[in-house]
Amino acid sequence: MSTETTSGTGPADTQEMTFREAIRLALREEMERDEDVFIMGEDVGKFGGVYEVTGDLVEQFGEARVRDTPISEAGFMGAGVGAAATGSRPIVEIMFSDFIGVCSEQIINQMAKNRYMFGGKTEMPITVRTTEGGGSGAASQHSGTLHTWFAHFPGVMAVAPGTPESAKGLLKSAIRSDDPVIFFENKEIYGQTGEVPLDENYTLPIGEANVEREGEDVTVVATQRMVGESLELAEELDGQVSVEVIDPRSLYPLDTDTLVESVKKTGRLVIADESPLSYGTHAEIGMRVMENAFFSLDAPIQRVGVADVHIPFSPVLEDEVLPHASDVEAAINRIV
Amino acid sequence: MSTETTSGTGPADTQEMTFREAIRLALREEMERDEDVFIMGEDVGKFGGVYEVTGDLVEQFGEARVRDTPISEAGFMGAGVGAAATGSRPIVEIMFSDFIGVCSEQIINQMAKNRYMFGGKTEMPITVRTTEGGGSGAASQHSGTLHTWFAHFPGVMAVAPGTPESAKGLLKSAIRSDDPVIFFENKEIYGQTGEVPLDENYTLPIGEANVEREGEDVTVVATQRMVGESLELAEELDGQVSVEVIDPRSLYPLDTDTLVESVKKTGRLVIADESPLSYGTHAEIGMRVMENAFFSLDAPIQRVGVADVHIPFSPVLEDEVLPHASDVEAAINRIV
Amino acid sequence: MVVIDIETEDGQREALRRMLTIRAFDTKAGDLFADGELPGFVHLYVGEEAVGVGACSALEADDYITSTHRGHGHCIAKGLDPKKMMSELYGKADGYCNGKGGSMHIADVDAGMLGANGIVGAGPPLATGAALTAQLKGEDKVALAFFGDGAVAQGQVHEAINIAATWDLPAVFVVENNQYGEGTPVEKQHNVQNLSETAEAYNIPGFTVDGMDITAVYEAVKEARNRAADGQGPTLIEAETYRYHGHFEGDQQPYRTEEDIDIWKDRDAIESFKQRLVDAGTITEDEFDEMKAEIDEQIETAVEEAKSAPYPDPSEAYEDMFNATVPEISQFSSQMRADGGEDR
Amino acid sequence: MVVIDIETEDGQREALRRMLTIRAFDTKAGDLFADGELPGFVHLYVGEEAVGVGACSALEADDYITSTHRGHGHCIAKGLDPKKMMSELYGKADGYCNGKGGSMHIADVDAGMLGANGIVGAGPPLATGAALTAQLKGEDKVALAFFGDGAVAQGQVHEAINIAATWDLPAVFVVENNQYGEGTPVEKQHNVQNLSETAEAYNIPGFTVDGMDITAVYEAVKEARNRAADGQGPTLIEAETYRYHGHFEGDQQPYRTEEDIDIWKDRDAIESFKQRLVDAGTITEDEFDEMKAEIDEQIETAVEEAKSAPYPDPSEAYEDMFNATVPEISQFSSQMRADGGEDR
Ligand SMILES: Cc1ncc(C[n+]2csc(CCOP(=O)(O)OP(=O)(O)O)c2C)c(N)n1
Ligand SMILES: Cc1ncc(C[n+]2csc(CCOP(=O)(O)OP(=O)(O)O)c2C)c(N)n1
Ligand SMILES: [Mg+2]
Ligand SMILES: [Mg+2]
Q: Do both A192 and A263 map to the same domain?
C-alpha cells in the first residue's frame, strides 16, 4: 500500500490502526479544524454509534456537535441539507445504507439538485456516511450494497474505500469538499488494520483510483472488502499469474484513466464488487474500460458480485451469495 | 411493429390508440377481469390523473377501487404491499418517478424482499405505475429517468415499454403477475399512437425484447421515447445504413438472447436510453452483449443518454441534454 | 431583503404593494402560460397573497424561508425581484437560476429564500436544518417553512416538525390550507378538522388563523418568531386560504364550481386589506389605483425584458453540477455536443 | 392461531403460558447469542411480554399483525411455533423462512403474522394495507401494528396512521413505549409527554395504558378492535413498558443503570399477572412451576432440534426471489457456483 502524503512527511508518520479508527480520526481532525463541522445521526453520541465509529467523539465535542437524532432519517437528512445551505458543514450518519430508502428523496431531489437547479448559486458541503455489506448474518434488510444507486444518480459523489488509509484521506476530502459526498463503509472491514498517515493535512483527492499492487497478466478492480481479499489472492497466485489490483476508491467520479491504463497493460479485467450484478457497479467499470481500451482487451471482462439476490440470513446461504477471493480466482482462471 | 397476439385473433382486431389509452385499456380490462385489482394514487379518481391516464375509470369502478390518496407515497406504497400480501392485487400510481425517493424504502425493503426473506412463502402481486422523462419543461424534479435504480435493485421487475402495443400487453402481464413490477411510462410518448390489439387476453411476456425493425449493419437498442425516434431515424437512413431497432421493453429481466443474437448479426451496437450515462441502463446492456458476443463486436459499443446532469428547465438547455435521434445518428456514424 | 414593518403606515403600504405584485405577477404568468409562452408547469398563488406577505412581514431580513411548488408569492413576499423571476419563468439566462430552475425552483439563498420546491413536503426539513445552523452558531435567525394542507400528510413534514420541537429550534411552520391538494379536498387527506391540531403531536403551540386577513397572519407569525428566537421552539400556524386558479394552469377543476370560488373571492385578502387602509386614511383610492398601475407596468416591463433576454448558451447545461470538476460530465457532454449540435 | 379468550380462566392460563414462553424463548436466545451460537443480531422482548400477549389476546384468529425488529414476542403471542422460530434463529432449513430470514424476518402470513421487520416504522403501512384489503373485501378482519416509541418519529408511521384514520380502516396501532430507541431515551426523540397524544393529529382515540399489566393492554386493544371492526376506524394505544435487556444483545447500555432497570422489574408483568391468577385461584403455585418447567423444556427441545436440524442447501440462496423464473439469477448463480464452490 502506498504511503503518499500531501504534506511530504515521511512514512514514519503513520500508525497502524483499524478502518474504524481511521474514520474516527478523520472525523476528529476535521471537527477540530473547522467549527462548522458537526455530526448528526442515530446514537452517534453517548452510544458511540452501533459500529462504534463515532466512539468517544461526543466527549470531546459535546452533544450539540455530535448529535443524536430521533429515528427520522428523512427529517435529519433534510436538516443536513438545510444546514449545509446555510453555512454549516454537516456529516450525516445513516446507520445502514439499507435504510436510505426512507430518506433518498432528500438526497436525490434536494442535496443532489440544489446547486444545479439554482444555477450554481449555492454550495452543498455535506457528507453522508453509511454502512454496507454482508457477512455478519444481519440478513436482507441490513446487508445490502447500494452504492451503485448513488454512483448513478447525478449530483452526488460516491466514495467507497477499501483500506484504512484511503478511508482517512478520502473522508477528510469529503468533509472539506463543497460538494455532497456519500461515503460508504463496508462493515466487514471495520476491524481491518493498515498504516494510516497521522498528518492532519493528509487528504486524498476524490476521483483517484489507487494501484494497490502492480501486476502484468490481469487487472482486478476491487472495491471495499474485495480489495483486501484480492490482494491476498494476488500474493497466493504470485509466480503463477501476475495480478494487478486496483481500488477505484471513488465510484463517482471514477478514475477511468488509471483503470484503462492498467488494462492496456494486462489485456484482462476482473471486476469484484459486492453489488448485485445486474446494472451494478461492475457494468459501468466494464463499459468505461471497453470504451477506452476496446482493442487492448484480450478476453471478455469478468464480473464478480452478487447474483441478483438479497443477502440471506443463514450463514451457509450468506456465504454462498457473497463474493469471495475464490470467485475472483475462478474469474481469473476463466480468462488467463 | 409486430401484431402478435396470444389468442390467435387476426390483425383486424387492433385499433389505433395512444400510449395513454393503451394503458387505460389495460387497466380497465384487468379491473373487469379481476375484482381484487384496484388502483391507488394521488388524484387518480375524479381528477383522472395528472396525465389523464386513469381518466374515467373511477366512473366505472367507483372510488373504492380507483382510490385517491393523501400525499403520502410511503404510506400508500406500504399499504399496497400490505394489501398485496393479504389477497389484493393493487396498482399503485406514483405521479412522477422523481418522487419515488419518499417511498423507496417500502419498495426495496418490503415489496422486493418479503418473498425471499420469508423463504418463498408469500407472493407480492403488486404493480407500481410511474412516469419518467424530460421534454416538457418540467425541470429537474419532474423529468428524471430513474428506471436503472429498479432494474438494479433485486426483487422487482422493471418494465419500460416504447409503444402503445407493448404498453398494453406488458401492463396486463404486470397486473396478472404474482411478482412486483415497476412500470415506467415516459410522459413524452403518452400521445403517440399505434395499433393495439383489442383482445382482452392479449398479454406480452415480461422479459422479452421486441425487434421493432430488422437491419443488417448496426443494432440500436432503444427504450421508451428513443424507440420511436430510432425507428424514424432508421427509415431516414434506409439505403445508406441498415439499422436494426430493438426495444428491450423489460429492463429486468432483460432479454439478453435477443440482443446478443442481433449484435452477432450486425457486429455493432448503439444503446439509446434517457438515463444518466454513468452506471446507467446502457452499461448493463453493453456488458451483457460483450459477455455473450465479445468476438462478434466489430466496434466499441456506443451509449446515448444524458451526460450525468439533471434535466434543466430552459427549453434550450433541456433540448441540449436530452438524447435525440441526432445523437443516435452520430453514434451510428462513429462506428459504421 | 427590505423588511416591512407592518406596524407602520409605510409598512402597510409596502405590504399591500407586495400583495398586489404577487397578484399581478401570477395573473400575468397564468395568461402567458395560457398563450403558450411559458414552458413547464405554473402553480399560481392568486388568492393566497395575505399568507405569504403577512408571514414574511413578521420576519427579519436575515431569516430564512422554504417554499413550495406554488412559490412565486413567497419569493415576492421575501423581497425577490419580479424581473429576475419572470426571466426565470421564461428560462432565460438572467433569471434567478440562469434559466436552469424555472417556476418551481426559484431560489435566492443570499436573500434567505432557500428555494421553491417541486417535492411536496421537502421544504420543512430544510427549514429545520437552517434553524439548526442558527442554533449551532448562536445567530438570531429564524427559519420559516411554508407548505400546503396536502403536505401535512407527508412523512418528512412530520419528521421535520418533531425534530424542531424536540430540539427547540428557531423554526416556524406555516400551513397554507387552501382547501385542496391538487383536486383532492382537505377532508379526504386528513381526519382532523383543523390542521393546527397536528401541533398536539409535537407539544408545540398550534393556531388556525384567517389566511385572508394579512394582519391575523402577521400577528400569529410575529409571536411565533419571537418564541422561536427566544429559544422556545417552533410553532405551527395554519392559515385558511384559497387558490382562485386551478392547481396548475390547465387544470379543468372538476372538483369544484365557480360558486365555490366566489365565496372566497368575496373575502378577498387584497380587497379587504386595501379597504382597511383606505378607511384608516393610510392610502387613498387614487393612490391605490396608482400603485396598481405602477405594478402592472412593472410586470409588463418584466415580461418584455424577459422575452427579449437571451437564452443561456446550450453548453451551460453541463455546468453547475458540482463545485469540483467531474471528468464524466465533460467527457460525456463533449461527445454529445460534438455530435448532433446543429440540428437541435 | 389459537385464539385466547382471556376473559375465561383457560384463556388466562394460556396468556400466562405465552408470556412465560416469550420470556423463556428470549432469555434463551440471549444466552445462545452470548455463547456465539446465533449469527446476526437478536433484539429481545424480555420485560414487554404483557404488551404482545395482551394485544394478541384481543384479536380474532384471522386478524393480522405487523411486527418489528423485536418480533419474537409478537410471534409467540400470535401463536407461532417456538420450534420453527428457534430453527430460524439458527438459520436452519426447517425454520419459518427456511433460514433465509433469521430473527428479524420471521413471518407466517397464513397465521396473520405479516412479518418481523428490520426497518423501524415499516410495519404500520403494511397494517394499513392489510386493513384496506379487509375493508375492500368486506371481511371481518382487523390489522394491528406493533411499533416502538422510536418509530413514532418515522414519517411512514405518520402517513400510515393518517391514511387509516382518513379511510376509517379496521386498524389498531400499538406503540410499545419501552422508553428507549436504542440508546436514546424517548424524551430526546419526541416533545410530547405521552405518545398517545399523537392520536390528536389524526382525530382518533388515543390511550396510554400500563404495558406491564396484561389486562390493561387487553382491554384497550379489545375496545380498539371492536371500533375498528365496526367501521369506526383506528385507535392508537401506547403501552408503557420496558426492555430488561440491551437494545440488541451485546449493547453495553451506557445510557442507563441497573437501578433504572430494577424499578421496572419490580413491576414485572409476568410476576404480577401470575400473582393475580394465584390470588383468584385460577392457578396454583405448583401448577405455575409446572407450567414454567414445561416451557423451559419445550424451549430446550426447540434448541436441541434446531441445533441438529440441517442447514439449507447453499443452492437455495438463489431461490424464492420471484414467483416467475428470472434468467439472470440462474445464469449469474450457476457461474458463481461452478467456480468457487468447494473452498467456501
Ligand atoms: C412527494 C410529492 N408527491 C406528489 C407531488 C405532486 N403534487 C404537486 S403539488 C401537489 C398538491 C399539493 O397540495 P398542497 O400541499 O395542499 O399544496 P397546494 O398545491 O394546495 O398549494 C401534488 C400532489 C409532489 N410534487 N411531490
Ligand atoms: C429506518 C430505520 N432507522 C434506523 C434503524 C436502526 N434501529 C433499529 S431498532 C432502532 C431503535 C428502535 O426504537 P423503538 O422504535 O423504540 O423500538 P425498540 O427497539 O425500543 O423496541 C433503530 C434506530 C432501523 N432499523 N430502521
Ligand atoms: Mg393545498
Ligand atoms: Mg423503544
A: no
